[in-house]
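Section: Multi-chain targets

For targets with more than one molecule, the full set of components is provided together so that the structure can be written out for the assembly as a whole rather than chain by chain. Components appear in the order listed by the source. The example entry contains two components.
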Amino acid sequence: MKEKDVIIDVRSLSKTYVDESGETPALAGISFSISRGEFVSIMGPSGSGKSTLLHILSFLDRPTRGLYRFTGKEIGELSDADLARVRNQEMGFVFQSFNLLAHSNVYENVELPLIYSKIAPSKRRAKVESALRAVGLESKALQEAGTLSGGQKQRVAIARALVNDPNVIFADEPTGNLDSKSGAQVMEILKELHTGGRTIILVTHETKTAEFGKRLIRIADGQIEYDGPIMQGIPKDSLK
Amino acid sequence: MTIKDALRTSWKGVTHSKVRSLLTMLGIIIGVSSVVLLMSLGASAQDLIIGQIQSIGSNLVFVIPGASKSGKFSSPASSQGIVIKTLVKSDVDALRRESSINAVAPEVRGQAKVVYEGNDLTATFEAVDEQFFKVRDFKLGKGRLIERDDVNSFERVVVIGGELATTLFGSRDPLGKSIRIKDATFRIVGVLDPMGVGTFGVDQDNLMLLPLSVGQKQLLGVDYYNSINITASPAYDMAYVKSRVTSILRDEHRITNPDKDDFTVRTQEDAVALLGNITGILTAFLTAIASISLVVGGIGIMNIMLVTVTERTKEIGLRKALGATDRDIMTQFLFEALSLTLIGGAIGIIFGAMLVGGTYLVLVYVVKMSWTFTLPASALILSVAVSTVTGIAFGLYPARKAARKNPIDALRYE
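Its structure, encoded as tokens over all components, is:
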């Protein structure tokens, strides 16, 4: 693996939550790298730390200890405003609960990251339309997001994740709130995006969904239990 | 986030729940409309008072008994109802000898019971001589005014205001009729044209004008005057005439130390400035009271903005996840608070202007006052400025609270 291809590099990453009841370790010194263009599925039982890992990787949370380099830059050295800029321009997010602005239309939802990129409104239209085409929702642009079906909402969320042409798309249980048909459609879109060269990092607890990835990181008790390719037989054993 | 995007986002926030936004704005609407109404009424009242003073005549100098010592705008004791007897006939005679003065008109005032054929009422009288009508602009409807002979020969004649004539005589002609004033019989020789409420609230339509000598000696039993009205000669500067009047009266009263003056000399300009100052202070005081409601309105906006920030915690988390900085979030919520106060302010200005218009219609067409419709630019500028400051002051805390939310905690919020 060439150094310049490494997009995410974490070393001895730990996260401990502190509250009135004491300290709760969520991640206990994990290390791995992800290269540009990989499709990584992160799995693990509830409370294993997989969502915490995704939040740290996507700058939504900060680690307690350890080193995290994103595209070669140590994130501990970045200010909150720098992290916001990187999130906006180099990352896309797909959440389990869609997180759309229910009273805004599809176009306005997809446009949202562009507002924070300070891209002129005249240049936004082409980007939004292209993203909506990629998820097959160009005809729904003016429909209020709250009135869409679950599958359509998640496709809008994917279009929103795509619109700024990010390096990495983080998907947190993207099929968790969908029926199997809609879930399969969403995963097909993510698969196409990966084929097109994008890096996808997917957190899921569903084996079938995880199998869309090429690499599996399985976490238990805050530590990596398995990190390797998803192949017939081997990963499935590890997923049990 | 551009300003345009911030405006669009805040507009969406305000219009999302219209009834709630309107109720939130209500405090600002009431506050701003009160400020506009009070400032407009103050300006109209000032116009009215100043107009009335200027309508009395021109080149006027007033002398009133008693000193006005503590500053230019203080009132002498006589203007507060305290009887001071320092202005007498010798003062008037001395003033009449001064070449820079055109006319000198002393007067005494009082109230008396008036009776005619079982009708009885209390009216104000002014006892004057013939020079009074050179100084004050009274319009005679019919008959004649008070003449020199009336004063010299203690004639019991009276000129009455138009409304008083109607009250006492109805449609009958009052000229030549006799009325009883303070148990003495007076013959009506003249009726004034309707003039409305005059300076200092004197109802000129219900006024009685009597010969000075009769008023002084027979009705009041005094030998002093309540005031001396003077018209300066147009050839002289008003400040000069004022100084001459002061100098003559000091000589007459044998006063060498100006601090011991027992009279006050004011020009028409002094009176305009004095009353302008009084109405200005009164307007500012009332406006300050009305502004309290703006503070209450601002607190209402802060309260609702805090609720909004809590309700939209998840949205804040999402926006931050998608790249919004703390400053973007703060701008969005600050603009939302500002939109509420500025829209509230605009509605308040419109509502206030409607109230000013309504007051104008009532005063002009119902009360029959010569009121003017005044909507001072200062009221509008103050309203916009106060709305903006209120929006920023009371929107800042909720906006900062929103901006400081941790993205992942905000996203997890249910």
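DSSP finds eight helices and ten strands in chain A.
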